[in-house]
C-alpha cells in the first residue's frame, strides 16, 4: 500500500486532481471517498465526471443509492451509501455486481467495507481548521495499481 497526501487550496484544485485521476482509471477500478459532510467528496466527483464530459449530469445519489453514467463505452457508478444500515443492504441492491462493470465512486464506503473488494483506492477528505477553502486528501493506493498504472506523477 502506498500513501499520498494532496493539499487542495480550492474547489478547482480538488476538481482538477479528480479529473487527472479519472484519466488513469479503467473498468473495475474503485474509489472510496470518506469524509465529513462538506469536506469535498461531491466536488471531487464533479471533477471526476468532468473528465468524461459529464460534469453537467451529476446529481446526488442520496435517495437512489447509485447513479449510473455512460460515456464512450465507459460505465461510471456513483454510490452514496450513507443511508444504508449495513453491507447486507448493499448486497440486496446487487451493489457488488457493479464492481467489474465500470469505474465505481463510493461515498461513505467505509460503511460497507466488508462488501468491498480487496483492492481499491481510498481517499479520506479532511477540512483544514485554519482555512475553510483548504482540504487535505489522504490517499491509500494498493500496490497492484503500480504494475500497469502511474497514478500520481
What's this entry about, in short?
This protein has helices at residues 11-22, 41-51, 87-92; strands spanning 2-8, 30-34, 66-71, 74-80, 103-107, 121-127, 135-141. It has 153 residues and is an alpha/beta fold. Helices cover 19% and strands 29% of the residues.
- Overall structural domain count: 1
- Total beta strands: 7
**In which order are the strands of the major sheet placed?**
1-7-6-2-5-4-3
| End-to-end CA span | 16 Å
- CATH C-level: Alpha Beta
Helix content: 10-25%
Which structural category fits the helices and strands? alpha/beta
User: On the 0-100 scale, what is the average pLDDT?
Assistant: 90
CATH homologous group name: P-loop containing nucleotide triphosphate hydrolases
Beta-strand content estimate: 25-35%
Order of helices and strands: EHEHEEHEEE
CATH topology: Rossmann fold
- Second rung of CATH, namely the architecture: 3-Layer(aba) Sandwich
Major sheet, described briefly? Answer: 7 strands, mixed
Count of helical segments? 3
Globular, elongated, flat, extended or rod-shaped: what is the shape?
globular
Low-confidence segments, ≥5 residues, pLDDT <50?
none
| Alpha-carbon Rg, integer | 15 Å
Overall description:
- This protein has three helices and seven strands, in the order βαβαββαβββ.
- The chain has one domain: Rossmann fold.
- The longest helix has 12 residues.
- The radius of gyration is 15 Å and the shape is globular.
- The two termini are 16 Å apart.
- The model has no long low-confidence stretch (mean pLDDT 90).
- α1 packs across α2.
- Strands 1-7-6-2-5-4-3 form a seven-stranded mixed sheet, with helices on one face.
Amino acid at each position: 500500500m502506498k500513501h499520498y497526501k494532496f493539499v487542495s487550496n480550492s474547489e478547482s484544485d480538488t476538481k482538477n486532481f479528480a479529473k487527472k485521476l479519472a484519466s488513469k482509471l479503467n473498468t473495475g477500478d474503485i474509489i472510496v471517498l470518506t469524509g465529513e459532510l462538506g469536506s469535498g467528496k461531491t466536488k471531487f466527483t464533479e471533477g471526476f465526471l468532468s473528465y468524461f464530459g459529464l460534469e453537467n449530469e451529476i446529481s446526488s445519489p442520496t435517495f437512489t443509492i447509485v447513479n449510473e453514467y455512460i460515456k464512450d463505452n465507459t460505465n461510471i457508478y456513483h454510490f452514496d451509501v450513507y443511508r444504508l444500515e449495513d453491507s447486507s443492504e448493499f448486497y440486496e441492491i446487487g451493489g457488488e455486481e457493479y464492481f467489474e462493470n465500470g469505474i465505481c465512486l463510493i461515498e461513505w464506503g467505509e460503511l460497507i467495507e466488508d462488501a468491498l473488494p480487496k483492492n481499491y483506492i481510498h481517499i479520506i477528505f479532511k477540512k483544514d481548521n485554519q482555512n475553510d477553502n483548504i482540504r487535505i486528501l489522504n490517499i491509500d493506493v494498493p500496490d497492484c495499481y503500480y504494475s500497469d498504472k502511474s497514478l500520481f506523477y
